[in-house]
Design brief:
The chain is α/β, with parallel strands linked by helices. It has 11 helices and 10 strands. The protein has a 5-stranded mixed β-sheet with strand order 3-2-1-4-5, sandwiched between helices. A 5-stranded mixed β-sheet has the order 8-7-6-9-10, sandwiched between helices. The structure holds 5'-O-[(R)-(carboxyoxy)(hydroxy)phosphoryl]adenosine and zinc ion.
Length: 343
Amino acid sequence: MKKIDEDILILAIESSCDETAAAVVKNGRFVLSNIISSQIDLHTLYGGVVPEIASRKHMEQINQVVEQALEQAHVTLADITAVAVTYGPGLVGALLVGVAEAKAIAYAAKKPLVGVHHIEGHISANYIENLDLEPPFICLVVSGGHTHLVVVEDYGRYRILGKTRDDAAGEAYDKVARAIGLGYPGGPKVDKLAKEGNKDAILFPRAQVEGAPYDFSFSGLKSAVLNYINGCEMKGEEFNRADLAASFQNAVVESLVFRTIAAAKENKIDKIAIAGGVASNSALRGAMEEACSLNHFHFYRPSPVFCTDNAAMIGTAGYYEYINGVRHGLDLNAVPNLKLGER
Ligand code: KG4
Ligand code: ZN
């Protein structure tokens, strides 16, 4: 790694799904600004993210979001060391807006361009408020599109232990929320309703994937929830939505915590972090904290604002890529199915 003798300021851009975001991050860990323009209200009308609407809204917002990020950080483009941008995975039309913006700025301001993997961004969100956190550590990444259990071996070096075989954890939350009439995005709403329910009221299955102890599967759980609702409706019985939310959440949280703790033990790593939108879930944060303290592991989690999509996390990941010598050309393209660890 290169020795750093002056401040490195990264202007970061994120537009992979339904938030248009820009941030300025100093030396990888200090967030000077973090602007997020959310499209959630727009997509709520349709019960989920509509890709064409997302792209159009990103185009409308991106210039002002970047300007605000520079303004709030009290810097100009001349002060910036490099421009980092999410180039995958995500919705191709949405990603392209951020990538085009970053390339235009890098070209016009003659700054290096660094493409960042969205999940690497989520993982790196943990560096922001935990100045003592250094690899190696185990990270559970749980978002709307991804569920990964990863060993962060070094900055920018990842070993994937397991993934979901079907739905992502956030996707399961969103589908169950829709089934009980809570609307999009479901995660925060299920989280809130579950606080009023009994998590042991209904026993839902915890799926294991044979021969792959760190893989996840949530489609069976989702079907069990839907079957339970249908069963009640057919019998003309009312069901308690809070109990259902709490019991579903308990099944998700248990399966996430169980595998993460097992992975830390097996790999003899005593630091555990969580990342992604579902990492803002209060039950997951509570249960992981408890399991970590029971096993004498250090537990790291970003503040909720750095769990859901934001550009500060891209600035942090971009910083470590930059000091590792990663540079992209102006031919950088959006890669909707980019794999973690690929360049
Ligand atoms: O990381 P993120 O903002 O976007 C992706 O990269 O996918 O994650 C969004 C996901 C959605 O599925 C949302 O329902 C879920 O994170 N989520 C939550 C909570 N807040 C957001 N799930 C459970 N509990 C929450 N509090
Ligand atoms: Zn995300």
